[in-house]
Design brief:
The structure holds two protein chains of two kinds.
Chain A (H helix, E strand, L loop, with lengths): L7 H25 L8 H20 L6 H21 L2
Chain B lengths: L2 H19 L5 H11 L4 H25 L5 H22 L4 H29 L2
Classes of the chains: A mainly alpha, B mainly alpha.
């Protein structure tokens, strides 16, 4: 989505499909590579509860969302968090 | 259910909603929810976000698939190519010291913020 001119709706859908094998491939490395798993299953469970509901609702209301304003808002959040991680990791 | 659990649900909802609407990867918000909100280490946050991404992406992808939004060939090519990069990236990430990993992640977030801003501005120019 960040790189190509694919229509927004198709880009969103494609990225969701593509991320599935990517996450499945990377997950065992975080689990097995170190002495202890680099995963918190308890937190993951609660993240999933919220995110599955959010993903379902988000995909359904996609056509009614003010895309530009949402991107600006998310860019601000990512920028602030990113600067925090860069300067105070 | 503790406050931390509730924060994870709220952060997860936001990440899922934004992945379903503007298409940013859920991990972009999963990881800050855990590092900033729940004080998990960068590596654990990244590993945990992968666990959470899989069901989230399946639900979102299925919903889009039913609506005919998925372009199968590009999606499969992206996924196939991404697998190689993901394995290499994960092998590197679990060996990198925490503060450096957080700085790399921070740089990626700032860059993503820049790209999103440019996209939003481009959309503004197209609007009559």
């Amino acid at each position: 989505m960040l790189w190509t001119d694919t229509p927004q709706r198709n880009a969103n859908a494609n990225s969701l499909v593509a991320i599935i094998p990517i996450a499945v491939a990377a997950l065992p490395i975080y689990y097995f590579r170190k002495g202890s798993p680099q995963i918190d299953s308890h937190v993951a469970l609660f993240l999933v509860i919220g995110s599955v509901a959010g993903a379902y609702i988000g995909a359904r209301v996609l056509s009614r969302i003010p895309d530009r304003q949402l991107k600006f808002a998310v860019a601000i959040v990512l920028g602030v968090v990113g600067l925090k991680e860069l300067l105070l990791p | 259910m503790s406050w931390a659990d509730a924060a994870a649900v709220v952060g997860g909802f936001g990440a899922g909603f934004l992945s379903g609407t503007i298409g940013i990867g859920g991990g972009l918000l999963f990881v800050p929810t855990m590092t900033v909100g729940l004080r998990l280490s960068q590596a654990v946050a990244q590993g945990t976000s992968l666990v959470a991404i899989i069901p989230t992406a399946i639900v979102g992808a299925f919903t889009h698939f039913r609506r005919g939004n998925v372009l199968s060939r590009p999606a499969l090519m992206m996924g196939g190519g991404g697998v190689v990069g993901a394995v290499i990236g994960a092998l590197v990430a679990v060996e990198v010291p925490g503060p450096l990993l957080a700085r790399i992640w921070g740089g990626f977030l700032v860059f993503s913020a820049y790209r999103l801003t440019m996209q939003a501005l481009k959309a503004s120019e197209k609007t009559p």
